[in-house]
Amino acid sequence: MHGSPLRAVIVDDEKPAREKLSILLATEADVRIVAECENGAAAVAALKQTKPDLLLLDISLPDMDGFAVLKTLPSAELPVVIFTTAYDQFAIRAFEAHALDYLLKPFDHQRLQEALHRARLAVRTHTERVLTNKLLSILQETRAGSPDRRFLVRSGGRVVFLAYDEVEWIEAAANYVRLHAGKACHTLRGTIGNIAAKLPGEQFVRIHRSTIVNVRVIKELQPCNSGEFIVALQSGKELSCSRGYAAELRRLIEKTPVL
Known about the structure:
By secondary structure, the protein is of the alpha/beta class. The chain folds into 2 domains: 6-143, Rossmann fold, CATH 3.40.50; 167-255, CATH 2.40.50.1020. The chain contains 9 helices and 15 strands. The strands form 4 sheets. Strands 2-1-3-4-5 form a 5-stranded parallel β-sheet, with helices on both faces. A 5-stranded antiparallel β-sheet has the order 10-9-8-12-11. It has a 3-stranded antiparallel β-sheet with strand order 13-14-15. Strand 11 (204-208) and strand 12 (211-214) form a beta hairpin. The longest helix is centred in the middle third of the chain and has 17 residues, at 109-125.
């Protein structure tokens, strides 16, 4: 990450956990710890004083939980949030709170680096920062049934929050779907029909009975026989668009602004 360092606050009631995070973060040249807190009240004070880019927040604290810490702050002052906890049952609440990531203890350096990579991107693009800053309003919308624009993926003890913008294409795999995001591939339970029904129609289009594509990453459409297309993505991946889905693809492409 170029420019200013990623300013981080660590909140955990266990000293060994804080020390572990400090040691791991010390190996990241562009990360600077601006405060370490052992309870919620200290965390709230530190966040208001330092206004960090990143908050590594334990959920179980002696005076209030991590969610309560977030609710004490104005939404505009909320940094990018990575929850750290030994309990996976809070994953759904963390998802609703638009945490960037959810690290299950004990996590290793590689897992933390993955989260930091996403944090750097979030701070630089402001995409996830905007979502986090709107925490309270989004929680209210969620209760009213408004859809969230991210996937919650569980895999091998990990909980990954995947923004729709990160997903390039989706393929059917029996009773599962595979979400392709760059070099990563995540498996999610559900049929491609159910997934397609939940995705925003202005961004995703089904191009085949087993394939959905993110229109924003389409680089080129190559006509072929009988009204079909080859859909070339920015990554170089090529996908087939069958004739039955071509009309919807054309409609969506025509509505997409050219940058």
